[in-house]
Amino acid sequence: MKELIVVIATKNRNELLNEALRSVCLQTKKPDEVVVVSDSIEETKKADRKSSIKCGFTFLEDKYTHNYAGNLNTAIDYIVKTRLIGSKKGIDDVYLAFLDDDDKWDKDYLEKCTKATRNGADFV
Q: Which residues of 62-100 are buried (b: 16+ CB within 10 A; e: fewer)?
C-alpha cells in the first residue's frame, strides 16, 4: 500500500496554520504522516499547541532558502531520507499532498485523491 504524506509550508502565520492543521486532522482518509516546515520552527510549534484538535505532526526547520521552495525541498529531503533510503520502497510507493498554510481542505479531499490514484491517476 502506498503511503500518503501531507506537507504544509508555513511562515509565522499560526492562526492560518491552525485552520490548515484542523482540516488535515478532520480528513476521512487519514494521512500516514503530516510534515510542517517553517523557517521559524519554535514559533510554528506554538500553533500545534494551541490547536483544539490533536493529531501527529512532524515539525521541520527549513534548511535551505527561507521561502516556499526551501520549505518544500526540506520536506522532500526528509521524506526521501526517512521513507525511502535504506528501505525497499521506491518513489512510486509514496504520494505527497501539499497544503499551503492559508488553505484548508474539505473533509473528504484526501479520500477523493486516493480514489483517483487507484483509478490510474498519478497526479491529482
A: beeeeeeebbbbbbeebbeeebeeeeeeeeeebbebebe
Picking from 43, 46, 51, the residue whose alpha carbon sits closest to that of residue 12 is: 43
Contact 55, 74 (CB under 8 A): no
Cβ atoms of 3 and 30 closer than 8 Å: no
Place of cell 494551541: 50
Note the pTM of the prediction, 2 decimals: 0.88
Mean pLDDT, residues 66-76: 94
Percent of the chain whose predicted confidence (pLDDT) is above 90: 50
Of residues 56, 65, 63, 52, the one with CA closest to residue 33 = 56
CA 41 to the chain's CA centroid = 15
